[in-house]
Structures are given as structure tokens and as C-alpha cells.
Amino acid sequence: MEIKPGHLVEYNGEKILQLTEINTTDSKDKLICLCKVIHWLKRQIIANEFSGVTGKNIIYGGETIYPHNLYTHQAKSLFHDKVIWKQDFLFNSVYEPFLP
């Protein structure tokens, strides 16, 4: 299991909120299904969070909706304060709350 906490960074004069990532793979013998544990954990968290973001490639264009990506009230507040959401500050994609 890998947990990479998100955090606020400044890069080239811009404030960027990096996403928190929780990833895992199941064991080869399938005695422990960590993927199911991660899905259960995300279901517990979702009650206190918002879900759905739009990812936009700022270099090549195009966008994708990620309905299962979660974000907090604090992240939403930072977004409204012009903080950029990214997975990594070197990547081409930025994220924003999904608005249907």
C-alpha cells in the first residue's frame, strides 16, 4: 500500500495543491485483497468530502471527468483562492471541481 500525502507547494511563483494518492495492488496469493480495503476506506471518507473533478491538459488541450476523485472543503477553498490543483507540479494536467 502506498499513501502519498498531498501538500501545498510554490513553483514558479504559483501556489499548487498536490493531490493525495492512495494506491495498492492485491497480493499474488489473494489472501489479502488490499484493493477492496482501499475502496472501503474511500467509501468511509466520501461522506465528508466532495466528489468529481475535471482534469484539463494545459499543453495539448482536452479534458477528462474523474467522478471518483474526492476533495475537501479546504481544497475547494484553496481553489477559489486561485490555488492550482495538480497531481505533480511538473505534470501537464490541472484539476478543478466538476460542475455538471
Overview in brief:
20% of the residues lie in helices and 40% in strands. By secondary structure, the chain is α+β, with helices and mostly antiparallel strands. The strands form three sheets. The protein has a three-stranded mixed β-sheet with strand order 2-3-7, with helices on one face. Strands 6-5-8 form a three-stranded antiparallel β-sheet. A two-stranded antiparallel sheet has the order 1-4.
Attribute tags:
100 residues; alpha+beta; three-stranded antiparallel beta sheet; 2 helices
List the helices and strands and how they pair.
Blueprint: E1 2-4, E2 8-11, E3 14-18, E4 21-23, H1 34-45, E5 50-57, E6 63-71, H2 73-80, E7 84-86, E8 93-97
Parallel strand pairs: 3-7
Antiparallel strand pairs: 1-4, 2-3, 5-6, 5-8
Structure characterization notes:
This protein has one domain. It has 2 helices and 8 strands. Strand 5 and strand 6 form a beta hairpin.
